[in-house]
Structure formats: C-alpha cells, structure tokens
C-alpha cells in the first residue's frame, strides 16, 4: 500500500497575514518614484531623511523575509506534491498493466474458443484491430465508458459467433489435435503476454525519452551557468564585491549612505557560502552514490553472468524439476492407458455403428415398400371416390333440372290464374256495358222529340242519363284494373322470356364444360382402374413381406437386448474412465493453481521490493535535501554567531552613539515615547499603535511622514 502524504497547508489566518505582509509599500503605479526629500542647501541636509531611509530599508528587509519564508513554504509544498505525483504515476502504471492483462486475457479466451472449431473446418473472422491495445490511457469517465462499451460489443459478437459455430459443429477431437491445440493455446497466451509487456515498454520508453529531453535541457543550462561562473570577469566582480563587503567604513555619514550596499554584499556573501557548503555536501553525496552505483553494477554483472552460465543440468538437478518430471511420467502413463482403452471402445463403437446402419437401411427399405403399396391402395380408393363423386354430380344435375322445370310450371300456372282473374273482370265490365247499351237502345227507340217532351219526361230522361253515367263510372275502375293487370303480365312475360334466353345460353356453356369434365373424369377413371389392379397385385406381395418383417423384428429385438447389455457395460467402463480423467484434471488444476499462486507471490514480492526501493529513494532524496539544508543552516549559524559577538563587543564597549541611534530608530517619530509596532499599508511607515489610534479617532487620517491618506483597514500590527 503506498503511503498517502498530506500537504502541509497553512492556516487561513497566517495566509491572510502573509498576504498583508506581501503587499508592497507603494499602492499605485503613478507613485513609483521615491518619497520627496528636502534639497540640501550649502551642503546641509534634513535630519529626518536618514530615519526615513532606515525605516524604508527595514520595511523592505521585513517584506523580503516574509517573501523568503513563503517561498520556503512553497518549496515544501512542491516536494510533497512531487512525492504524491510519483505515487500516482506508480498507481497509473499498475492500473495500465492491469487493463492490458485483462484485455489480453479476453483475447486469449476468445482464441481458445475459436481453436475448438478447427476440426469442423470453420474459420472465424479475425478483427481488424491490432493484437494489443493501441491506447489504454483515457481522459475522463466518458471516454473510458466508451472504450469499455466498444470492447464489450466486440467480445459479445465474437463469443456469440463462436458459440453458434460450436453448437453447429460438434465433433470428436483426436488426441494429437488436442495436444497441438494445447500447445497453440500456450503459445498464444505467451504471445498476448509479450504484447502486453511490449505495450508497457513502449509507454515507459516514451516517458524516459521525455525525461531525457528535460535532463538534457537542464544539462545545457547548467553548462552555461558553469561557463559563466568560470569566466574571469565574473570572478573579478565577485572579488570586488567581497573586498567592498570587508572594507571598513570611514565615517558615520558614509555608513548611512552605503548601508544598503554593505547589507546586500553581506547577504551575497552569506548566500555564496551557503551555496559552496551545499555544493561540497552534494559532491560528497554524489561520490557516495557513484560508489554505490558502481558496486550495484558489479553485482548486477555477476548476477547476469551467473544467469547466462546456467545450463540445463542446473535446472535438472532442482527438486521442482524432478517432481514435475515424475508427475509428467505418471500423466503420460495414464494417458497411454486411456488412449488404448479409448481405441478399443472406438473400434467397438464403430462396429456397433456399422451394424446399426445396416439394420436401419433394411428397415428403411421395408418401410419404403410398405409405403408404396399403401400409396397404390390410396390411389385406387381415390379413383373410386372420383367415380362416386361424378355419379353424385349427375344426380344433383338431374334434381336441379327437375326443380327448375317445376318452378317454371308453377310460374306458368300462376300467370294463367292471373289471366283468368283479369278475364273475369273484363267479362263483368262487358256485361255491365251490355246492359247499359241495351237500355239506351230501347230509350232511343222510344224517345220522341226533346222539345215536345214534358217536364216529367225530361226528369225521367235526366234520371236515366244519370244512371247511365253512374254505371259508366262503375265500369271504369274494372276496365282500368284489367288493363293494368294485362300490362303487368305482358311485361313480366317479356322479362321472363329474356331471362330464360340468358339462362339457356349459360346452361349451354355449362353443359359444354360439364361434357369436357365428364370426358376427363372418364379418362382418369380408366387410369385409376389400371392403377388399382397393379396396387392389388402389390398388396398381395406386401402382405408376404410384412410377415417376413415380423420375423426379422423378433430377431432384431433379441439382438437389441444383447446390444443394450453391451452398451451398459461400455457406459460403466466409460464412467470409470471419466472419473479417472476428472481426477487427473483436478491434479493438473491443482498444479496450475500452485504455479499461479507462486507466480502471484513472486509478482507481489517484486512489487513490494519496487515500492520499498521507491520509498528508500524518496527517503534518500529527502536526506540529501536535509543535509544540504543543514549545511546552509550551519553557515547561517556561523554568521549569526559572528554578528552576536560583534554586538556583544559593541554592548560591552558602551557606545552611546549607536545605542542612541538604535533607540531613536525604534521609537515612534510622533510621540518619541513608545516603540514602533504598527505599520501603514498604504506607505509602509511605522508608528506606535496609540498614536495611530489617536489620529484615527481625531480624524487626522494622513501619514505624518508622507501625508498619504490611510484608513482603519490599512493599519497592520508588526509585533506585539
């Protein structure tokens, strides 16, 4: 398990303080120029100028110290981030290897399934993709899910095709083919493993090439810096800087003017000494590392020589090889015995299969003969059925003709009845007309001149005419009714005549078709009669064959009982062989599991050794960095001790001028009573907190030194 390192993140309050301290003393870009100074007249200068310069230099040194501390914090964070990055890189390599192994395992499974189809001659379609993954690294979850879905679709399609071919082509595999298939499967597995290793080595090669490019770039930069450090001009400038740093000051005014340059040269000297100490320490560490590398190279060369000089005899002498050889010989003996028994069983099975095929062919021939005879009988029965159906059709045609004739006669009788009723109506009408006409004739014969008639005669005449008119009115409906009936009967008769003509034409066409069918049926009947005769003859023969088949069936049943007994014996022997085979498979699986567990233990131990080596390398790097830091701290401690001794000497000498100068430098410039402990962020000047609070409460919110405005939020405590 890799150790998780927590980044040393500072607290929010300290971050806020550091941000406040890192704020520059000048707020705006227009005020980059230094603060205004009083112009010296006749060689004189203001008294407050050196104090202001000292305050500004002190603030600048303070901000530089804060920046330096923050940079150290950043360097510590960078070291922790580098360690975490290295651990994440190791994890990514492990996961990439895991994914490659999974893909190779799937490809091996599919190839082994395809090898089962070699006996049936079915070849599988090889995919167009390369035999190893082109790129396993993915950017985000969506691309990885897409990668898995594509791989899953390909695996499912290939597996379905392979299983379908397996279901369609199940055949026996010979022992030699099985051995060859096992060898091919082992070679394919080794090939997939080599492909996975090749992919990993390619990725490592790319990473190492990138690291080599970065190292060469750093080497070129370091070479340029070394050439610059070796130049004579740079050495002269360093000697001049050291001479200026060690040269004593002439007067107090010169010290105040060149204090900043001396401070810079002292800092440069301190840094130079720190760098030289770190370089010497790193050189010593480099020599130690080179010695260790040389020893490791010698050890590696000796181990390689031993590995190359190993012979087959060395392997043969090992206990593992002897045990494996004994197991292999036992397996070969068992396989030979199993092959012999399998050969005997195969010969017996082939003999039984031949007998079974002969018996099946005989049964099929007999069954075909019986079916032919039955088909001939069916043909005869079909001919009889066709003849019966033709007779039935003739009888149906006669009955339909009789029914049609009866319907026509019934219709003609009804028409005659209608004509008789119309005739009776006409007779009644004619009788009434005859009686009327007779009366009118008698009246015409008797009637005199109309003008000579009297009123009574005229009245009688009128009544007589009225009666004639009424009788005529009574005759009209009967005449009209008779006329309508005659018209209807005539129209119906005409329509019936046209319908009968059409029916006659249709019946003539149907009669011609029926005649053709009749002649065809007669021909079919003749052929069927001939077939019936032949089928009867065959039926007589088939009855004899059936009797013979019954005898054969009884004999076959006895033979089948004997074969079933032999089959049960063979099944028992096969079951015993299967149990022995399963035991052998279990032993082989145990051996494979042991080898896999040993390989897994070896891989785990190698991974543990790698992780320990990586952890030790990280610890060594940290130790190297800490040793360099210790050397730098020693140099700083020496300088601090020197400064302490100087200040002790100055304190023992009781130099009142320096004490007064330091006291005035530390006191507030407003009240001259309290020490400076509060800074203004806008300009960077220092005062005591009491004076600053008084000015804020009195609304005098301008700096007394530079007159720059400030607010309560611009006040920052420097120390307590």
Provide the low-confidence segments as ranges. Answer: 1-48, 119-141, 246-263
- N-to-C order of helices and strands: HHHHHHHHHHHEEHE
Indicate the mean pLDDT: 72
Q: Structural class given helices, strands, pairing?
A: mainly alpha
- Kindly report the spatial arrangement of strands forming the biggest sheet: 2-1-3
What kind of sheet is the major sheet? 3 strands, antiparallel
Separation of termini? 47 Å
| Overall number of strands | 3
Helical coverage, percent range:
over 70%
- Portion in beta strands: under 5%
What's the helix count?
A: 12
- The shape is elongated
Radius of gyration: 65 Å
Pathway: Protein modification; protein ubiquitination
EC number: 2.3.2.27
Family: Belongs to the BRE1 family.
Biased composition (Polar residues): 1-12, 231-264
Structure characteristics:
720 residues, mainly alpha, Herpes Virus-1, three-stranded antiparallel sheet, 12 helices, 3 strands, 1% strand, elongated, disordered N terminus
Descriptive overview:
By secondary structure, the chain is mainly α. Helix content is 81%, strand content 1%. The protein has helices spanning 12-21, 48-115, 141-168, 175-230, 232-246, 252-257, 259-309, 312-316, 319-446, 455-653, 656-666, 689-697; strands at 678-680, 686-687, 715-717. α2 runs antiparallel to α4 (175-230) and α9 packs antiparallel against α10. Residues 1-48, 119-141 and 246-263 have low confidence and may be disordered.
């Amino acid at each position: 398990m890799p150790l998780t390192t927590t980044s040393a993140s500072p607290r929010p309050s300290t971050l806020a303080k550091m941000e406040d301290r890192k704020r520059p003393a000048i707020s705006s870009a227009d005020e980059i120029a230094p603060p205004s100074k009083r112009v010296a007249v006749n060689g004189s200068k203001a008294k407050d100028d050196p104090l202001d310069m000292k305050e500004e230099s002190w603030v600048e040194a303070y901000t530089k110290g804060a920046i330096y501390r923050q940079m150290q914090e950043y360097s510590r964070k960078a070291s922790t981030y580098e360690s975490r990055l290295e651990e994440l890189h190791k994890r990514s390599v492990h996961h990439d290897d895991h994914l490659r192994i999974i893909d190779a395992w799937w490809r091996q499974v599919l190839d082994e399934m395809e090898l089962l189809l070699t006996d049936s001659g079915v070849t599988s379609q090889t995919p167009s993709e390369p035999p190893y993954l082109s790129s396993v690294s993915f950017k985000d979850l969506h691309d990885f899910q897409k990668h898995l879905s594509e791989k899953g679709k390909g695996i499912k399609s290939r597996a379905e095709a392979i299983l379908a071919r397996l279901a369609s082509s199940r055949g026996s595999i010979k022992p030699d083919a099985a051995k060859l298939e096992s060898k091919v499967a082992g070679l394919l597995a080794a090939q997939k493993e080599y492909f996975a290793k090749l992919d990993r080595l390619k990725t490592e090669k790319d990473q190492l090439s990138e690291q080599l490019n970065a190292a060469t770039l750093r080497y070129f930069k370091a070479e340029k810096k070394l050439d610059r450090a070796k130049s004579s001009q740079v050495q002269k400038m360093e000697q001049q800087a050291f001479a200026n740093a060690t040269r004593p000051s002439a007067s107090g005014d010169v010290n105040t003017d060149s204090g900043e340059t001396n401070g810079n040269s002292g800092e440069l000297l301190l840094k130079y000494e720190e760098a030289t100490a770190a370089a010497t320490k790193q050189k010593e560490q480099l020599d130690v590392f080179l010695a260790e590398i040389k020893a490791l190279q010698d050890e590696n060369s000796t181990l390689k020589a031993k590995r190359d000089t190993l012979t087959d005899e060395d392997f043969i002498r090992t206990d593992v090889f002897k045990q494996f050889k004994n197991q292999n010989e036992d397996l070969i003996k068992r396989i030979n015995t199993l092959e012999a028994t399998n050969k005997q069983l195969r010969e017996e099975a082939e003999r039984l299969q031949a007998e079974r095929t002969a018996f099946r062919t005989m049964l099929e021939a007999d069954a075909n003969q019986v079916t032919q005879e039955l088909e001939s009988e069916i043909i005869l029965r079909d001919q009889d059925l066709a003849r019966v159906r033709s007779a039935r059709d003739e009888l149906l045609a006669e009955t339909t003709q009789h029914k049609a004739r009866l319907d026509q006669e019934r219709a003609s009788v009804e028409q005659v009845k209608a004509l008789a009723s119309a005739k009776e109506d006409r007779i009644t009408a004619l009788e009434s007309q005859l009686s009327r006409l007779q009366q009118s004739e008698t009246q015409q014969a008797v009637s005199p001149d109309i003008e000579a008639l009297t009123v009574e005669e005229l009245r009688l005449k009128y009544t007589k005419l009225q009666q004639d008119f009424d009788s005529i009115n009574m005759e009209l409906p009967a005449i009209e009714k008779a006329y309508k009936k005659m018209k209807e009967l005539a129209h119906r008769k005409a329509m019936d005549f046209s319908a009968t003509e059409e029916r006659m034409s249709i019946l003539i066409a149907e009669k011609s078709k029926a005649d053709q069918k009749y002649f065809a049926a007669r021909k079919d009947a003749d052929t069927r009669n001939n077939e019936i005769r032949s089928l009867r003859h065959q039926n007589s023969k088939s009855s004899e064959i059936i009797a013979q088949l019954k005898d054969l069936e009884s004999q076959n049943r006895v033979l089948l009982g004997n074969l079933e007994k032999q089959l049960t014996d063979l099944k028992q022997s096969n079951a015993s062989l299967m149990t022995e085979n399963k035991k052998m498979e279990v032993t082989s699986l145990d051996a494979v599991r042991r080898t896999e567990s040993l390989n897994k233990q070896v891989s785990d131990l190698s991974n543990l050794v790698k992780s320990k080596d990586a952890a030790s390398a990280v610890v060594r790097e940290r130790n190297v960095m800490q040793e360099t830091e210790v050397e730098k701290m020693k140099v700083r401690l020496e300088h601090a001790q020197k400064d302490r001794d100087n200040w002790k000497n100055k304190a023992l000498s009781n130099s009142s001028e320096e004490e007064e100068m330091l006291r005035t430098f530390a006191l507030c410039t407003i009240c001259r009573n309290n020490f400076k402990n509060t800074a203004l962020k806008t300009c960077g000047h220092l005062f005591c907190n009491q004076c600053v609070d008084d000015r804020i409460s009195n609304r005098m919110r301008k700096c007394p030194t530079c007159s720059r405005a400030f607010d309560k939020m611009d006040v920052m405590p420097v120390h307590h």
